User: Which sequence fits this backbone?
């Protein structure tokens, strides 16, 4: 699935690009906006979810609030008290929806807890998420607009 060869789809060895999405997770969105937009100078847009799909070297960079991460993973605005708060989210965009479903099976078979099963979001992204041993939210997704 996510091997050292950076081949994210074993069924299609020609697909060797990694499309990265980076999202620091914040408990203080206003402070993060000041840091990333005002201080660092990233061209992030949006009111509730600040993001940009035009940063070189990355397909997407956004700042997720902890409540947004909880909603994406668990369907509630509260991160579960029995889990440590994640610090970031990393998503690996794969070739198609079948590759996302295959990744879910691989993660589950390897003993990783699936935060939510493979699903298609209203904006068309198909995604499954787990937590890494370091506490990062790791998503395997297919986002059609990133393949255009």
Assistant:
């Amino acid at each position: 699935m996510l091997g050292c060869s950076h081949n994210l789809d074993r069924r299609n060895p020609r697909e060797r690009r990694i499309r990265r999405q980076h999202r620091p997770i914040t408990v203080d969105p206003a402070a993060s906006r000041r840091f990333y937009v005002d201080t660092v100078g990233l061209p992030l847009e949006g009111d509730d979810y600040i993001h940009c799909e035009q940063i070189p070297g990355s397909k997407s960079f956004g700042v997720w609030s902890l409540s947004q991460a909880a909603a994406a993973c668990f369907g509630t605005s509260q991160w579960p008290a029995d889990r440590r708060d994640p610090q970031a989210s990393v998503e690996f965009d794969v070739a198609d929806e079948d590759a996302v479903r295959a990744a879910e099976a691989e993660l589950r078979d390897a003993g990783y807890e699936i935060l939510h099963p493979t699903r298609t979001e209203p904006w068309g992204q198909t995604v499954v998420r787990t937590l890494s041993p370091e506490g990062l939210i790791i998503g395997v997704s297919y986002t059609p607009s990133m393949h255009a």
Confidence is low (pLDDT under 50) at residues 1-10, 12-18. The CA atoms of residues 18 and 92 lie 7 Å apart.
